């Protein structure tokens, strides 16, 4: 497991946030499936409600109203300078969706659209480092990019974030952030017409989590199966947001901080 109280190194997937149309209904679903506790945030975040999800008392993810952006889970990569990273992303062929803007004293938020047309968030931490827990049940353990152009996405992530790529199967490659000891995710082809980052959360029992998702009104898109990552199921919450759950060794990894 890994608990963190300081900013993540630049280029590290550091935060996931759910944009949804009914924040309270989504919170109820994820309490049932992932066992999360819920903390409500103050008005400095804007017209909410805005929530943080906690695993074992530590902040694991967030949620808020979708507003003008797309619904679903959004991945954020740590940066030491959001403005400089936006400029580097634009130079590498991305479009800046959201220029850097402060979120109180928590940090600075930005978002870009990579050259393959997939959105990605940037987080420059101040008081809020991002996820305070990863690599255990209830926390982020992996992230896959299903891209219309995997080569373009890999090249972009290498140029802007310093990620290295390794070969997997079926056109997929594992990606490792600069300075990290092991991969944090993968990039491969979108074969389902739903491009984007698929965030994977650790669970103690993948089959039980899939059953809980179905009982709570979600959909099991891909039933539990054994993979090199662990036992994995792909789900959609009742509002259609995609996610995966993983049980096994990946959700019990040593500290990657």
Write the layout of secondary structure elements.
Blueprint: E1 2-3, E2 13-20, H1 23-34, E3 37-40, E4 51-55, E5 58-65, E6 72-78, H2 82-91, E7 95-103, E8 107-113, E9 119-125, E10 133-134, E11 140-147, H3 150-161, E12 164-167, E13 173-176, E14 185-189, E15 196-202, H4 206-215, E16 219-227, E17 230-236, E18 242-247
Parallel strand pairs: 2-5, 6-9, 11-14, 15-18
Antiparallel strand pairs: 1-10, 2-6, 3-4, 4-5, 7-8, 8-9, 11-15, 12-13, 13-14, 16-17, 17-18
Describe the structure.
The chain is an alpha+beta fold and 257 residues long. Helices cover 17% and strands 42% of the residues. The chain has helices at residues 23-34, 82-91, 150-161, 206-215, and strands spanning 2-3, 13-20, 37-40, 51-55, 58-65, 72-78, 95-103, 107-113, 119-125, 133-134, 140-147, 164-167, 173-176, 185-189, 196-202, 219-227, 230-236, 242-247. An 8-stranded mixed beta sheet has the order 3-4-5-2-6-9-8-7, with helices on one face. A hairpin with a 5-residue loop joins strand 8 and strand 9. The longest helix is centred in the first third of the chain and has 12 residues, at 23-34. The relative contact order is 0.19. Residues 252-257 have low confidence and may be disordered.
Distance between the ends: 10 Å
Average pLDDT reading: 91
**Topology, number of strands:** 18
Q: Rounded to an integer, what's the Rg over CA atoms?
A: 17 Å
The tally of helices reads 4
- As a percent range, the share of strand residues is 35-45%
- What percent of residues adopt helix (DSSP H or I)? 10-25%
Structural class: alpha+beta
Q: Which spans have pLDDT < 50 for at least 5 consecutive residues?
A: 252-257
SSE pattern:
EEHEEEEHEEEEEHEEEEHEEE
Please state how the strands of the largest beta sheet are arranged side by side. Answer: 3-4-5-2-6-9-8-7
Major sheet attributes = 8 strands, mixed
Q: Any idea what the shape is?
A: globular
